[in-house]
Amino acid sequence: MLIGSWLFLKYSPSDNIAFLGWMNSFVHVVMYAYYGLAAFGPHMQKYLTWKKYLTTLQLAQFVSQFLVLVAQINLTECPMPTALTLTVFGNNLFFIYLFGRFYYQNYIKNKSNIQYNVDKKSKSRLD
């Protein structure tokens, strides 16, 4: 993020891009609060039921960044340099993929496996 911020501020400074940095900072405050609490040990687990929402917030951040970048390219009179645009798009799509995959595996696929196991246990009790 440090290198990306420097590149943006040097080669394509704008208020839209500054917004992305502020959004990223907010998400990191929430993220570090979560992991800071988790570092206190297992007795904090009862307060950490919001991991799914943290992942959702991170996904929303990257999708929002992608949309802001598309708007920055298409709706402004000062387009971003091509190399910077391709780098940021690639980085953003990579993070959307990684966080999306994590979300799917932990909250969608896992939920269907849990439901399958519950149904399987219920059926075996009926037999």
Task: Please name the defining characteristics of this protein.
single chain; 4 helices; elongated; mainly alpha; 127 residues
Ordered list of secondary-structure elements with their pairings:
Blueprint: H1 2-11, H2 15-38, H3 51-75, H4 82-126
State the distance separating the first and last CA atoms. Answer: 57 Å
Number of helices: 4
Tell me the Rg in angstroms: 20 Å
- Number-wise, the strands total 0
List low-confidence stretches.
Answer: none
Any idea how many domains? 1
Helical content, roughly? over 70%
The run of helices and strands is HHHH
Average of pLDDT? 82
Strand content: under 5%
Structural class from helices and strands? mainly alpha
Which geometry do the CA atoms define? Answer: elongated
Largest sheet: none
Describe this structure in words.
With 127 residues, this protein is mostly helical. It is built from 4 helices and no strands. The mean pLDDT is 82. The chain starts with a helix and ends with a helix. The protein is elongated. It has one domain. It is found in: Membrane. Pfam families: ELO. It comes from Plutella xylostella.
